[in-house]
Specification:
Blueprint lengths: L6 H9 L8 H19 L5 E5 L5 H9 L4 E6 L2 H11 L1 E3 L14 E7 L7 H14 E8 L19 H10 L3 E4 L2 E3 L14
Parallel strand pairs: 1-2, 1-4, 2-3, 4-5
Antiparallel strand pairs: 5-7, 6-7
Length: about 200
């Protein structure tokens, strides 16, 4: 039986004191780090964000607090999250693999995808990554866990792959690792010094 990303799922993993995988303070620190790194390479404040697999869009409020006026767009495959928050939080329905064909009228300074890729099959990851490579103007934050990690949290459907598998897949679409699960896009690569990469 496939996993259902309904309200009970989000209540358990994002709000329950017994199971929640992160705190508001941790999210604030993470968003601040990612914004700072993106802006360092871009040379200007982040203007727009694409948040893939955004769930209920917890990044949106933090981003808008730190960068008022930022243009936020979320994509999510949970019918519950899109039905409940789609209009109010600018979340559209899409699966990761659909990024191979899905395009917008702009490129994105920042693309975020947290806690998604390690649940997906290789073909869907590769398909979606082509879209990220093409739509990315600045930095991608691709937070995921590998065979070498102990992710905690939701292990149902977790696909254990070695870190080298993801590195190769990211490299194929021109994503350059610059630390802390951040990747400079192909258009930024000339701004990255050799010792900034891994």
């Amino acid at each position: 039986m496939p996993k259902t990303y309904d309200q009970a799922y989000f209540d358990k993993w994002y709000r329950s004191t017994d199971h929640a995988v992160g705190s508001p303070a941790e999210l604030n620190r993470k968003v601040a780090m990612v914004l700072a790194q993106a802006e360092f390479y871009l040379g200007h404040p982040v203007r727009n964000v694409l948040d893939i697999g955004c769930g209920e869009a917890p990044w949106r409020a933090v981003l808008r607090k730190m960068r008022p006026g930022i243009d936020y767009r979320g994509l999510e495959a949970s019918e519950y999250a899109v039905a409940r928050y789609g209009r109010s939080r600018n979340i559209g329905y899409a699966r990761f693999g659909q990024l191979a064909e899905l395009r917008f009228d702009t490129r994105f300074d920042l693309i975020v995808c947290t806690d998604v890729l390690h649940y997906l099959k290789p073909a869907e990851i590769r398909a979606g990554l082509t879209g990220i490579g093409e739509m990315l103007e600045g930095l991608a934050f691709l937070e995921l866990y590998t065979r070498e990690d102990d992710p905690g949290g939701d292990r149902e459907g977790f696909l254990s792959r070695p870190a080298r598998w993801y590195r190769a897949a990211f490299n194929e679409v021109g994503l350059l690792p610059v630390g802390s699960q951040c990747y400079a896009g192909p258009r930024l690569s000339r701004h990255v010094a050799s010792l900034e990469t891994f």
